[in-house]
Design brief:
The protein has 228 residues and is α/β, with parallel strands linked by helices. It is built from 8 helices and 7 strands, in the order E-H-H-H-E-E-E-E-H-E-E-H-H-H-H.
Length: 228
């Protein structure tokens, strides 16, 4: 069953959720946010990219900051850039777009300040954009790209069955967290936590120390009960 308009959640939240479910809940349920150097640089990059004008380069048209929506996934947001590549009428690809002549194949491009990650959070975000475009235009979107500021290169992303399943599952989980209003407990993972701007509020290290103390106390109690 499709979601109603007032049930739509921010598409960008999927990136938070795949990176860390607790981060997604803190931002989108508890409404807390803290900037650091990385988040500010990321915001500046997005503002620079989306403030540009539409472009036409032969068989390519570039649109910026376009609104996206999927009632099936219950998501809405905006795309940094969508390239529209003109395709032949006989190819059976692409879609009619406004009053543009011919058929056009959308190709979403999401801009990130850093570099490619080991996790798939960025890929899920761009895949969710593709699913929105497919629903809105009634056209298949097989590929897109992530542009990373540190490397100044694109990473092509194929929206295969596996990535689509991960993205759909992430959207369902995002709605579950939002509906239950339950923030997942903190779990410290050095690679992710140390780079998160919310680490001071989340305090995953404190949670880990509490577990360590609990185990130490339990062991000490056992030794005391059984004697030397």
């Amino acid at each position: 069953m499709p979601y109603a308009e007032d049930e739509l959640l921010p598409l960008s939240g999927l990136q938070h959720l795949v990176y860390c479910e607790r981060q997604a809940a803190l931002v989108h349920v508890e409404q807390v946010w803290v900037d650091n150097v990385s988040t500010v640089e990321g915001s500046n990059l997005h503002e620079k990219v989306t403030s540009g004008h539409p472009e036409t380069r032969g068989e390519l048209r570039i649109s910026r900051d376009l609104p996206l929506r999927s009632l099936r996934l219950g998501l809405s947001g905006r795309a940094d850039v969508i390239e529209f590549h003109r395709v032949g009428e006989a190819a059976g690809e692409g879609s009619r777009v406004l009053d543009w002549p011919g058929r056009w194949l959308p190709y979403p491009v999401e801009y990130k300040r850093g570099q490619p990650k080991r996790h798939r959070a960025d890929e899920v975000q761009i895949c969710a954009q593709a699913l929105c475009i497919e629903e809105m235009l009634g056209v298949s979107v097989p590929e897109g790209a992530l542009f990373y500021g540190q490397t100044q290169h694109r990473k092509e992303v194929t929206f295969d069955a596996e990535l689509r399943e991960i993205t759909i599952a992430a959207a369902l989980r995002f709605h579950e967290i939002f509906e239950t209003r339950l923030t997942p407990p903190a779990v410290y993972e050095k690679e992710r936590c140390d780079e998160c701007s919310l680490i001071g509020l989340c305090q995953p290290g404190a949670a880990r120390r509490r577990v360590d103390r609990y185990l130490e106390d339990a062991l000490r109690q056992q030794l005391s009960d059984h004697g030397p």
